[in-house]
């Protein structure tokens, strides 16, 4: 888990800096909340993680 945090931190900072510079922090917050909600769905989480075999993607 700590490795994920280490890798994700610069991307999170860049996204936050971008949002601040473009006065869109609230919009980014909404988008991130949406993604968090979508990934609560087990099928969507598997799809987004690439855990599904290509032949099953057409079934989703």
From TrEMBL:
It is an enzyme of class 3 (hydrolase). It is found in: Membrane. The keyword Transport applies. Its EC number is 3.6.3.14. InterPro entries: ATP_synth_OSCP/delta_N_sf, ATPase_OSCP/dsu. Keywords: ATP synthesis, CF(1), Hydrogen ion transport, Hydrolase, Ion transport, Membrane, Transport. GO terms for cellular component: proton-transporting ATP synthase complex. The keyword Lyase does not apply. It comes from the Bacteria. GO terms for molecular function: hydrolase activity; proton-transporting ATP synthase activity, rotational mechanism. Transmembrane segments: none annotated. This is F0F1 ATP synthase subunit delta.
